[in-house]
Amino acid sequence: MSQSLRMRSLLAMGASAAVLAAVAAPAFAQTAPQGGGNVLEELVVTAQKKEEALQDVPIAVSAFSQDTLEAQKIDGGPNLMQAIPNVSFAKGNFTNSFNFAIRGIGNKAVGVSTDGGVGVHENNAPLQSGNLFDAEFFDVERVEVLRGPQGTLYGRNATGGVVNIITAKPTDEFEANIRAEVGNYGTQKLRGMINMPIMGDKLAVRVAGNYLKRDGFVTNTFNSHKVDDRELYSTRVSVMFNPIEALRTNFMWEHFKEDDSRSRVGKQLCTKDLGPATVGGVPSGVARRFLSQGCLSASLYGDGAYGTVNTSGTLTGELGNIFGFTSGDANAGDTTSRNLREIESLFDPIYQSKSDIYQFNLAYDLTENLTFTAMSSYSKGKVYTKLDYNRNVSTVPFNSTPLTPGGFFTDPQVGATNKFTTIDVSAGDSKQFSQEFRLQSAFDGPLNFNIGGIYFDYKTTTDYYVIGNSLTLSALALNFQRTGNPNCNPVTLPTSCIGIDPNATPDGSGHNYYDNRSPYHLKSNAIFGELYWQANEKLKFTLGLRRTHDDKRLQVYDTVLLSPGIGLKQSTTTPEEKSVFNELTGRFGFDYKLTDDNLLYAFYSKGYKGGGSNPPAAAGSASVKPQFDPEFVNAFELGSKNTLMGGSVMLNATGFYYDYQGYQISKIVNRTSVNENVNATVYGLELESVWSPVHNLKLNANVGYLHTKIASGVSSIDTMNRTQSNPLYTVVKAGPSLPNVAVGSNCVLTTAGVATIIGAGAGATIPFACGGAAVYQAFLQTPAAAGGAGLPAGTAAFLANATGLFNYGPGYSIEGTAANLGGNELPNSPHWTTSVGAQYTWDFADGWSATLRGDYYRQSKQYTRVYNTAYDQLKSWNNANITLKVEKPDWGLQIDAYVKNLSNKTPITDAYTTDDSSGLFTNLITLEPRLYGVSLTKSF
């Protein structure tokens, strides 16, 4: 097949280097060359920031047109994984966070200064944050997904690959369409576009929009409301102005807004930890409530996973037990529904988000062989979300105390209730600017180049609140203990009185809740270039280099939960954490055309993703590393792209091997995200094919195999199992007012020592042993009226120093012992991803046609964390979609019907483990339920 034939658009096919299945439109079906047969047409992409036929690009890249996205029901970014090998996707636990992983490399780090391992771009401009994975795709020219490190042309955080959304541009022909859709869950969608040429091919305007409203997928069984609904809209205005043939410009403004009850996370699971009934043969008695970590490390698929958090194993529950407004587990005897689409919440979630993106792109032909390109992009966004932290209404009311008369308490943020209630609020705003310049050649000779530079500036401030009526009650109780007045004035008593925020919406001033405030500023610049040497008509060499400078600055605010005073204050010891990186990356390799239809390529690439600062630790906590290291990958890739059987078959194969240094992973410790680094090797294989055996029939199959292995010598403390199940040690909940220890966190003490303390009748004091021997002794001998245990000095000294509480064996400390990670798999790295599809088009009289399409996807089991325990393992899952399209192009009329998730399964696609002070519960991420609907499209 000729090169010119292979350059024709495959927009309807969406065939990728992952060559995916074609859409149904017969207008974009097979081309019938002379001599018969069926020729698959091919998409033109800009994976190397220049227009090239997909099969000529020596990169593993998948591309989808708007028609392909609709045919395969890829409504937005989360659905892309079902059409690309070795890709997984899951929403994150926090606002606007997600993990789009390619070949096991994504974003498992948490924190404002972290970067995604897969770069997200719109029209080739980088986006640090935004709503591209919240909104649906609409009026796009194509979506490109590049697999493997792309650090030369696309930048710093592209060690896994790049997702690039190319929006449809204005053209010199009038066109318009409108699409209306209805479906189950009360789904209503409206999408439209109008393209208006004003001065021929010199000036044109294109306006597009998308609206979505549907009911919730989740039932709140407390009030029988449907939650997790969606109501959002997106608009886009594009202006093309080409005053002369050599100058081409395009301006775009994109707006997004959402206001609904969408839940950031799904069902919450917990295998309840009741705490040991005996310790070292001694009945634990009253101490038992301080020996629970809330939830145990156990499979998410077991019957026990539908328990509730033992509130005694949480910060708020522990304080309630200490100060007397609760007695033990406030969820005693309670379980959760086994339906993963049911939660129990005192109130419905709130989700509000909006963003604007402004872009201006300019291309100027300096000569017929040299083109100068300038890309300017500015965006801003704001988000506010609120939900029930535990998504379970406690069964046991507060005790009746002076602070909770009749068992009721009116909290300024929570309101009046007699139930243990905790709220989670995540809010933030951001703005970013980028400017890129490039000079690209198209000489007839053997040498060409693509060189440029980019400046990127990103600012954001995030607030993450955990608010609870038990926290406010604890603040009041501590105020009474310290000052004799629960409602003391923190302004006049700044060293002893805890300030209470009186506002219903927290303003950050209160010390009666947790607020992790993180103002962050990133400045990055880079120079880059690629040199192409066409050694002969078949062989081409590529050399690319990029020099990146990252300057990350995080203003550190002390998280002052339950500490005296009022208002957030910038840290006096470390007011700002600064991380600066200067790194050289690049790629080198060749591509060789065996024939016009067979391409072989081999490349070495070095990728880089910046390190950063861990979020500020809870006030007084220790052992939190202030910074985490950058990531580096040495990647080797061998690929082959083939068009066979006269153009009716596309068969591509890619093999890869990564030497990965410093992959960033996260866990929550002492109410703060701690990012760690691990080394790993990654290798795998991808096979992709499309076959049109007869006219109007298309078949596709993609298979991805992935193997990941963490290097030997890597270890980390598993907060779900700090003792590594060693019976010689016992987990204990840390008490309040301990220096360098976060209240509600877990510590590890010797089992023999804990048994001795309990046997001596001092079990209720055991939380204060988490401060160490000296702190524990001081607490024990402090008078009860001053907040201590009031024991004689000799008894206090014996219990703290002579019971063996702190006699740790090799590898153990008060924090526990590290688990060996060597040989474990990276999280979100299923060994196998498989997708197959088939479609057939029937042509009828008078220009009517009907296309029936089916798609099937399967993902093998994977782990959610690096520890690879039974708790971490997710089962394999599969999904099937069916679409039917009936159309008459002459009338511009199209009718579509679809069913997504045909079997209506609810697989768990990822899970998030919370911290010690929250009881180590698990938030689930699941697939959408079965969706079906019909739509009508009219084109003009």
The helix fraction, in percent, is under 10%
Biggest sheet overview? 22 strands, antiparallel, barrel
Query: Using only CA atoms, what is the Rg?
Result: 30 Å
Molecular shape: elongated
Q: Class by helix and strand content? A: mainly beta
Question: Uncertain spans, ≥5 residues at pLDDT below 50?
Answer: 1-37, 618-623
Structure, described:
There is one protein chain. The protein is mainly beta. The strands form 13 sheets. It has a 22-stranded antiparallel barrel. Strands 3-8-9-6-7 form a five-stranded mixed beta sheet. Helix 6 (773-781) runs antiparallel to helix 7 (793-801). It starts with a helix and ends with a strand. Residues 1-37 and 618-623 have low confidence and may be disordered.
What's a concise summary of this model?
This protein is mainly β. It has seven helices and 51 strands. The longest helix has 15 residues, at 469-483.
List keywords for this structure.
22-stranded antiparallel beta barrel; five-stranded mixed sheet; mainly beta; 940 residues
Record the SSE blueprint.
Layout lengths: L2 H4 L37 E2 L6 E2 L6 E5 L1 H6 L15 E5 L6 E5 L15 E5 L2 E2 L13 E8 L13 E7 L7 E9 L3 E11 L5 E12 L3 E3 L4 E3 L2 E15 L2 E14 L7 E2 L1 E2 L5 E2 L2 E2 L11 E2 L18 H9 L18 E2 L6 E18 L2 E19 L20 E3 L3 E3 L4 E20 L5 E22 H15 L30 E21 L4 E17 L20 E20 L2 E12 L2 E2 L13 E2 L2 E14 L4 E21 L2 E20 L5 E14 L4 E3 L11 E5 L12 E5 H9 L13 H9 L11 H9 L16 E3 L11 E12 L5 E11 L2 E2 L9 E2 L2 E12 L4 E8 L7 E6 L8 E5 L4 E9 L1
Parallel strand pairs: 6-9, 13-22
Antiparallel strand pairs: 1-2, 3-8, 4-5, 6-7, 8-9, 10-11, 10-51, 11-12, 12-15, 13-14, 15-16, 16-23, 17-50, 18-21, 19-20, 23-24, 24-27, 25-26, 27-28, 28-29, 29-30, 30-31, 31-32, 32-35, 33-34, 35-36, 36-37, 37-38, 38-43, 39-42, 40-41, 43-44, 44-47, 45-46, 47-48, 48-51, 49-50
Helix pairs in contact: 3-4, 6-7
